[in-house]
Amino acid sequence: MVLTASLFPFLCFSIGFALNTIAIFYRSLAAIPFGTMVVMFVLWAFISFPLVLLGTVVGRNWSGAPNNPCRVKTIPRPIPEKKWYLTPSVISLMGGLLPFGSIFIEMYFVFTSFWNYKVYYVYGFMLLVFVILLIVTICVTIVGTYFLLNAENYHWQWTSFSSAASTALYVYLYSIYYYHVKTKMSGFFQTSFYFGYTLMFCLGLGILCGAIGYLGSTLFVRRIYRNIKCD
After folding, report:
1. CA-to-CA distance for 155 and 136, rounded, in angstroms?
2. Hey, how many other C-beta atoms are within 10 angstroms of the C-beta on 32?
3. What is the pTM of this model?
4. Are residues 103 and 34 in the same domain?
5. Which of 12, 133, 169, 199 gives 20 to 30 Å between its CA and that of 107?
6. Domain-located, residue 31
7. In this structure, are residues 130 and 59 in contact, taking their beta carbons and an 8 Å threshold?
8. Which DSSP category does 74 fall into?
9. DSSP state of 228
10. 87 and 61, same structural domain?
11. What domain range includes position 50?
């Protein structure tokens, strides 16, 4: 509960604080005033954090008993040995390739508009690419979850999340390529801002894709176990 409310904001605040310190050291106009950072922290501490805690408590109290589609054993059975390509780590790494491929071309224009100061105006196409990303992420995560369950591994929850979230890893790797090939940035100041802001973007993208993938896998697992006999 506390981790949910604080992990992502803490990471972004830490990165932003580090970048702001660098900007102050270089006397850049990109430096955020200290008062603005205090206001952002107060908004998180007194609005966002309490609302997450309240939502968690209300959700736990109102959800009731788990409505499992089949009988669940209290004693977990051992997971058999499986081939290397059916391990959660491999499934997680491979799960982000297709979603990244669906946004690969669009990422070039997004990076160009943000870092090379070009005007971006095809927002309708971006919306279409975003919808395609969500659909591909759900489908790929469901396939990975099916392979995992078929290998008699019932630890699919975090694997489905990491499989979808690994899209952000490939986006960050692409940003490294874009930095060296498509930009003329140099120096510690520009490099730190480029990779710092890109890291925050990838963190948000990873959480978004991971949540969508986990939701799709959850609906898929509940659906298949509702329609088959389970001993």
Report:
1. 22
2. 14
3. 0.87
4. no
5. 12
6. yes
7. no
8. S
9. S
10. no
11. 1-67
